[in-house]
DNA sequence: GTAATCCTTGACGCCGACGTCAAGGAAAGC
DNA sequence: GCTTTCCTTGACGTCGGCGTCAAGGATTAC
């Protein structure tokens, strides 16, 4: 099997497979014409990498699984090193999820506080003798130096 | 206030502040010597950006907050555009957290399955007439072509 | 005065996992 | 034989948010 077929069967691209090879994850035999030659076991390697990538594993983290398979084990996670990666990833996931939930709570708190503040301002505006109700955009336009910035200069690009 | 002082007071670096300016987030007046000149209101802008960055907001997502402050509003989230960003971020966070929890469940399942498989193999090895207990590493070393790859070729680096 | 520190702009580096383009050889269909 | 498709290597581009270095001018401390 050549690189194009392996890529198609694995649902990826030749470029990706060459990249894996460059990282030492997917060594390839060569035919007499210089073309890379793969077999079914290579398909398993690529599939293993794909599954882990979908889990959010970095390429380096897939290495123990790939080497486990290449060593002849039935599954990529038949080796202790792979299990260690699983456990480390679970810890990372727990930490990350915890942080994200903390952030979500804070953002939600900010949103609620800001909405309440706006509601208060709106209520005051309704009251007789309240402040002039200024349009959001109009307010911005009132101060001259706060006009739309036309200077947007991107780095290294003009 | 010059850029170094503002950076220090905001807990960031001059490079970062120049970067914000290049993105149109933090316009700076200039002194007669060409130095950037900032005041307390600029410190508020930078602090607003920092808070949102800590929440995981991208720089572009902080723009409505910064423009809101620059328009003279009391808070960066006093404007509807900022609230919209809050809501969008909450949705993104919910989606992301959900995905991560799904991945965590899958990884945990994989870990448990793999641990169970190893336990079964260990138990079989204990039984009389069971298979030869092969060392994890020894097994890998047995197949010659699966030896440690010494070819690790990094892209564009040798 | 002079050395140390601050400021300026410009430009390249970094990380990760590839995408994309280029120049050229091999293979496959007709 | 000819065209199209596939393969090869090499090298630059992408995205975000800066870090870091370079060359040179301004300010400040002593």
What would the keywords be for this entry?
homodimer, mainly alpha, Multidrug-efflux Transporter Regulator, Chain: A, Domain 2, DNA-binding
Task: Report on the architecture of this protein.
Two copies of one chain form a homodimer. The first copy, chain A, has 158 residues and is mainly alpha-helical. Chain A has a domain of 76 residues: Multidrug-efflux Transporter Regulator, Chain: A, Domain 2 (Orthogonal Bundle), CATH 1.10.1660.10. Chain A contains six helices and two strands, in the order H-H-E-E-H-H-H-H. A two-stranded antiparallel sheet of chain A has the order 1-2. In chain A, a hairpin with a 5-residue loop joins strand 1 and strand 2. In chain A, helix 3 runs antiparallel to helix 4. The C terminus of chain A is likely disordered. At the A-B interface, helix 5 and helix 6 of A face helix 5 and helix 6 of B. The structure holds a DNA duplex (30 and 30 nucleotides).
């Amino acid at each position: 099997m050549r690189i194009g077929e392996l890529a198609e069967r694995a649902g990826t691209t030749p470029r990706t497979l060459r990249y894996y090879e460059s990282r030492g994850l997917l060594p390839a035999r060569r035919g007499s014409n210089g073309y890379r030659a793969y077999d079914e076991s290579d398909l398993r390697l690529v599939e293993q990498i794909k599954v882990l990538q979908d889990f959010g594993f970095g390429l380096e983290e897939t290495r123990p699984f790939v080497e486990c398979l290449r060593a002849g084990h039935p599954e990529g996670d038949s080796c202790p090193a792979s299990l260690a990666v699983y456990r480390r990833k679970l810890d990372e996931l727990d930490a990350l999820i915890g942080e994200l939930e903390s952030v979500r709570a804070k953002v939600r708190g900010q949103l609620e506080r800001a909405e309440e503040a706006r509601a208060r301002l709106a209520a005051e505006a309704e009251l007789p003798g309240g402040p002039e109700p200024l349009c959001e955009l109009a307010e911005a336009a009132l101060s001259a130096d706060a006009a739309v910035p036309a200077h947007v200069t991107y780095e290294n690009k003009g």
